[in-house]
Design goal:
binds zinc ion, 5-stranded mixed β-sheet, alpha/beta, Metallo-beta-lactamase, Chain A, globular, 14 strands
Length: about 325
Amino acid sequence: MPRAIVALALSIIGTPAIVSAQGRGGQARPREIVQIRGDLYYVSGSANTVFLVTPDGIVLADPVSTEQAAWLKPELDRRFNKPVRYIIYSHHDFDHAEGAAVFGPAALVVAHENVAMNLDGKLHRLAGGNIDTNHNGKLDRDEAGGGYLTNFDRLDRNHDGAITPDELNQEIRKPDITYTGRLNLTLGGRTVELIYPGRNHSDDMTVVYFPAEKAVLAVDFIFPGTTPPVWGEYDWTPLREWIASIKTVEALDFDTLIAGHGARLGTRADVAANREFLEDLSAAVSKGIADGKSLDEIKRTVTLQKYSIWPNLAASLPNVIEQAYKNLRDYP
Ligand SMILES: [Zn+2]
């Protein structure tokens, strides 16, 4: 349904206030700017935007969506009266990288070099375990799940029943600056460090480290207080590479983690727990495979009770074990 019709339908039933507070992901929580420490802030909408205010302008990570950026731009102007000078992408997925155009061409987009490749007009790895199963170079409606399905009518711009790469990436500005391993951005006497952690949820990830604020943004591969995300055999990336990339974050001097989604900030202990979970999961499932057990037998015997404090563990464990089993089988 086109957005205008949704808004009209909601205002007819008398809830226009909810329409203005709703993000693209459908959450009804009003957006607000929250201080993390010093001049570092975040906005938690359908995904998180983080920004550092310096005397010479703002460094922003993940504009998230045209809608979120259009909400944020006048808030930044009003509260800080500084232009956005750099926009960092955590990775190229549309639910984080859309919306940079709102801040104008003077704001330079910075990303890992693989982001440029992933925006080259071909269909590359999709998030959430989505696959172009018929290999036609587009995501058809019956192939789409998760965020691609809930956003299908918006992303399928010409409404022909398939999302082409150009349609998928239409609201994503391409990077102006790319880097390979590490890049330090300096603005107004402040430093932001961009670190490639290796492959995990995607192959074009940037960890954004704010050393003076002892804070780090790590998107879609660390979830504080819950299991690390499990989509499509752990995004078809060996679990040992996931573990290595979390260790890259742990090697930084930080005490606050901002994740890609959710307003809950994390601690060093949350990051370590995500890594230990993947280590324990890999060890338990690998042992089951080595002992000749079937997937069903492994599902019955591996409980990972140490992590039962995580509210979603029991419900997600069968799928977690299945995706880990396939991952360890396919990427031994
Ligand atoms: Zn993602």
